[in-house]
# Entry
Amino acid sequence: QQIFATTCAACHGQNAEGIQGLGKALRDSQFVASRSDEELIEFIRVGRAPDHPENDTGIAMPPMGGNPSLTDDDLQNLVAHLRSLQ
# Structure
C-alpha cells in the first residue's frame, strides 16, 4: 500500500480510482484482472510508451512507475496490493 501511495497514486489515484488525463483506474481494471502476477510485474518494470499500439490513453506509463529504486520484492508487494483492491 505504501509503495502504491508513493509511486502510483499520483497518476492512478489514492484509491486506484484513476485520474483522468493521467492514469487509468486499477481497482476494477480488466487489464490487471486478466494478467498473471509475473505479467503485471514485467509490465510495471517496462512501462508503456504513449505510442504503444495498446496504449489507448496517449500517456506514458513510465518504467517502474518512475521509481527506478523499486526492488523485485517491492514489485511483488505492489502487485499483491493491486490484487487486494480487486
Remarks:
- The radius of gyration is 12 Å.
